[in-house]
Each structure stands twice: as C-alpha cells, then as structure tokens.
Amino acid sequence: MTVEPEECAVPAGRARRGKADWLTGAGITAVLGVYYRPEGPAGEPEAVEFVLADGQSVLLTCTSERTLRVTPGAWPRLPDWCLPASRWQHAPPVQLPPVPYGGVWTVVGTQELRDADGEVLQAVIRCEEGDFVVVAGDTMAIRFAPGPPPNAP
C-alpha cells in the first residue's frame, strides 16, 4: 500500500478528498506518540504516528483549530517541526496494548467525525482486534477500544 500525500494530507482550510477508508487493508506494526522530551511520555503526545508493515507511516497531528491533520509520516525520523530534534522522541503511548500475536494490527476500516466545516475532529482506525480512537484537542488523545473476542457470537 502506498500512502500518497494527496490521499491523506489535509490542505489548509479544506476537507480531504476521497473516502475515509484509505488505510483499509494496511498492517500496523507500531503506534507511537511524538512527545516533547522535557514532558516525556507521561503527558499527552503532540502527534500520533502509525507505522505500517510496508515501512511507511501515517502521522496525525492537531491543528490550532483543534482538528486533526492526517499526513504521510517520516518514520523512523521525527516530523520536521520537532525542533530541536534532541528535545523530541517517539514513544508508545502508555495506555495502548502491545502489538497482537503475529506483530501486526490489520486495519479493516476507518471512520472520521467531522465538524460543520468538514474538518476532521476524530479518527477511528478499526482493526480486527479493536479500534484506535484519535481525538484532536490542545494535544492528541488516543485510546484503544478492544473488539469482541474472536469467537464471540
């Protein structure tokens, strides 16, 4: 899967074109927060990066309007705005589960909650094992909502 800038970048003041399910079928090998090092991973991340099995990544950041911006990531490098780089770090958010057996979460769909202007407020990345919910605010909030057990009726 190739993550092209036109598929996931949010142009300033405009809603992203296309369907919200552009990540469907991807394998996520890691979910990392981008943290300002003096605050450390105990705080909320300034961005969330989903590392994909094909080596690419997807970066979700919040804008000054408290909306989400979805762009291609630069994994394993930090985003360009992390200056000076020595004060920033990637780290797994503490409240997320470890990668499932097999080393990958498989994306089965995505959903976006948008405001009246079409800006993304929340993204839900649905995986076989549960949902990653990413919400914009002053900083990013991410949580994992486990799905039903595999053999549940």
Note the run of SSEs as H and E.
Answer: HEEEEEEEEE
| Weakly predicted, low-confidence segments | 1-19
What is the overall number of helices?
Answer: 1
- Describe the sheet with the most strands: 9 strands, antiparallel
Query: What is the average of the pLDDT values?
Result: 82
Number of domains: 1
The percent range for strand residues is 35-45%
Radius of gyration over all CA atoms, rounded: 15 Å
- How many beta-strand segments? 9
**Roughly how many Å apart are the termini?**
32 Å
Describe this structure in words.
By secondary structure, the protein is an all-beta fold. The longest helix has 4 residues, at 5-8. The chain has one helix spanning 5-8; strands spanning 27-36, 47-52, 57-62, 68-72, 88-91, 105-114, 120-127, 130-135, 141-146. The protein has one domain.
Explain the layout of strands and helices.
Blueprint lengths: L4 H4 L18 E10 L10 E6 L4 E6 L5 E5 L15 E4 L13 E10 L5 E8 L2 E6 L5 E6 L7
Antiparallel strand pairs: 1-2, 1-5, 1-6, 2-3, 3-4, 6-7, 7-8, 8-9
How would you sum up this structure in a few lines?
By secondary structure, the chain is mainly beta.
Could you name the key traits of this structure?
disordered N terminus, globular, mainly beta, 153 residues, 1 helix
